[in-house]
Amino acid sequence: MYISTRDNWPEISAALAIKLGMVPQGGLFVPTYIPSFPLERLKDLLAASYQELAQAILEPYLDDYAAEEIRELVGRAYNNNSFGSDAITPLVSLAEDLHILELWHGPTAAFKDIALQLMPHLLSRAVQKVGSGKDTVILVATSGDTGKAALEGFKDVPGTRIIVFYPHQGVSKIQELQMTTTTGNNTHVVGVKGNFDDCQTAVKSIFGDREFARLLAERGYELSSANSINWGRLLPQLVYYFSAYVQLVRQGRLTFGDKINFVVPTGNFGNILAGWYASRMGLPVNKLICASNENKVLTDFFATGVYDRRRPFKQTISPSMDILISSNLERFLYEMNGRDGKVVNGWLTGLQEEGIFSVDLQTKEAMDEVMWGGFATEEETLATIEHTFKEKGYTLDPHTAVGVKVYHDYRKNTGDTSPTVVVATASPFKFNASVLKAIAGDEAVKGLDEFAMLGELARLTGLPIHPGLMGLDQKEVRHHRLGTKDQVPAQVLDILGVE
């Protein structure tokens, strides 16, 4: 069963939590308790496939899904047609104690594919279980990667419409084309004149608008979300943390039972939160290291206990992390403060109305036990890409490079030499201009368009271009909508034909 982080909603089933997306009164759904996953059980799975591991991790959270259903849906999501690696999330070692978990082998070259290849199946089945007779409208705010992954996941899924809002001129050209060339009769993409926080705030306000929901219901629609505010999106991400651990043991790089660190480049906090849930289940995790770019609101929060979004918003070369309001932090706060929803509601109300809140000392100490925060500047990110390529022969994207730089800072500051996995969130080809500049200099990109850069980056690195990025320049741009953040509700109504 699932409850609200703000103690304002009754217990509901997993299927209903996934169908609703977020708590209609405000708040996010969390499980009533976190299932235990004993080490003996994990040891039995050391030879398991990714699909078998997923089955074992997901089952305890999905009481109203039969084991056979979960096996079927996992099989549909994780296969050779969707992922370019049998491992699904292969692990590459850069040093004895530094490893990269590649999460970008799915259809859109980003880690969001891991969740968004499964979530549409979970949601479709949830709608069948709960029943309503209405079409589901998926609203998505994206900082770059979630949008395309969600569009691909929900494309032509019966009974659904998906509308993605992205910051116009706030994503890479490749990311934008991935979204705007999407086919499918139920897909819609809208550029928003503003930043990701504007998109996210507008979408969340729609979910909290009861009159808007009533209007849609009268026309046969109901809302849900594919962002990580939806438990059905967050849950599949737990699996790859277990997969990383299992792979290290299988490769002989880790003694079973020893603890490891994870470094996670994150903006909205969902990716690293999945790692925290995995550790609470029993995965041997020593420390979770939260890596930010120059929009370092999370770094400052973990250092001080004060969350302050009242600062300039910076557009960086790691745009998927250009976020000042980290929605999934709410779930973490709820767990860290002893599950007091009223206190969490006060903090989040303060953030919404004043742009700032402070946690109490006990909550801060609980966070310090499990989390460490760091950040990288633009120059440091580019230097890390260059150094890693020249010294290790490995090509990082600008988000994963932030993680590698923060890893080195963490070791220097703490002296902790525990085996560490950096979670790689995107293919370097998604951010070809930045990567090419880093490894070959500014001159390497002069006179080249995005697609010529793909070829040049492939030539220099010896890597094949990710198939999800090939031929984008030959595809028709099908989505041209553009508006302000205040026009987001009107865009939804216009797309759905609701007056």
Write the layout of secondary structure elements.
Layout: E1 2-4, H1 14-20, E2 29-31, H2 39-43, H3 50-58, H4 67-77, E3 91-95, E4 98-102, H5 112-116, H6 119-130, E5 135-141, H7 146-154, E6 160-167, H8 173-180, E7 187-193, H9 196-207, H10 210-218, E8 221-225, H11 231-234, H12 238-250, E9 260-265, H13 270-281, E10 285-292, H14 297-304, E11 306-308, H15 329-336, H16 341-354, E12 356-358, H17 361-370, E13 371-375, H18 378-392, H19 398-414, E14 420-424, H20 432-440, H21 450-461, E15 481-484, H22 488-496
Parallel strand pairs: 4-14, 5-6, 5-8, 6-7, 7-15, 9-10, 9-14, 10-13
Antiparallel strand pairs: 1-2, 3-4, 11-12
Helix pairs in contact: 1-6, 3-4, 3-12, 12-13, 18-19, 18-20, 20-21
Explained architecture:
The protein has 499 residues and is an alpha/beta fold. The protein has a domain at 84-111 and 234-431: Rossmann fold, CATH 3.40.50. It contains 22 helices and 15 strands. It has helices at residues 14-20, 39-43, 50-58, 67-77, 112-116, 119-130, 146-154, 173-180, 196-207, 210-218, 231-234, 238-250, 270-281, 297-304, 329-336, 341-354, 361-370, 378-392, 398-414, 432-440, 450-461, 488-496; strands spanning 2-4, 29-31, 91-95, 98-102, 135-141, 160-167, 187-193, 221-225, 260-265, 285-292, 306-308, 356-358, 371-375, 420-424, 481-484. The longest helix has 17 residues, at 398-414.
